[in-house]
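tool=predict chain=A
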Amino acid sequence: MLINTMWIGDRLGPIQAACLRSFMRHGHDVLLHCFERPRDVPTGVKLFDAKLLMNENEIMRHKATGSVSLVSNVYRYRIMQRGMGPYVDCDVYCVRPFEFSDYMYGYESVSKINGAVLNIPKKSDLLDHLIEASEDRYFVPPWLTPKKQIRDKILRKVGFGRHVSNRPWGVLGPNLLTYYISFLGLADKAVSIDYYYPLHCDHVSMLWQKGLGISDVMTRNTFGIHLWNANLERINKPIEVNTPLFEMVNS
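tool=predict ok
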């Protein structure tokens, strides 16, 4: 089964490269969507010109963090819209062959659903809502209080709308997904936390813990481990032997 993924930049880095290799090692074809070929892309990874789905002038960064996650969220919904197949983030490490279904997503916490692993039918109400919201750069989140929604819609109408890059983190990602999945009664299709998110975002330091291995940050239900790249970058420590990260990058 083919999986789609996306990267912006001229270098993946050892962790992302290891994640892509992990999917190929478990029998998946990997199609990397990129605007330029990363110089360290693993052998066997197929490339897709991202400019066919998105203009480079659409690239935007989250004001508070500088992250390009907003672009990644918009892009993955376009992959779904074109029926290209399942999507995974470049920081998801595969530990066994994935089982795919029409609706494919999982909880990252007790109440929030993440889209680092995602598949949605091309013709579905859920995807229609996600596309409509993510293509609106002045999207007003429906989970805001009625008072705030009215205020923001008035401001948008008179030319002072709040750009999504100035919204809180996750506005076009987990927050958007979770809202519409719940709104449409599709939460029962979400798998439990340990399928894709056995490692909580606040616990990524465990990946540098001496004496631990990959098996210590997963359960027997786990298919992939989301490594929370933004948090990894904040830690930014050398990868040492006898740690989960060392095991990953050397596999």
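The mean pLDDT is 95. Residues 2-249 form a domain with the Spore Coat Polysaccharide Biosynthesis Protein SpsA; Chain A fold (CATH 3.90.550).
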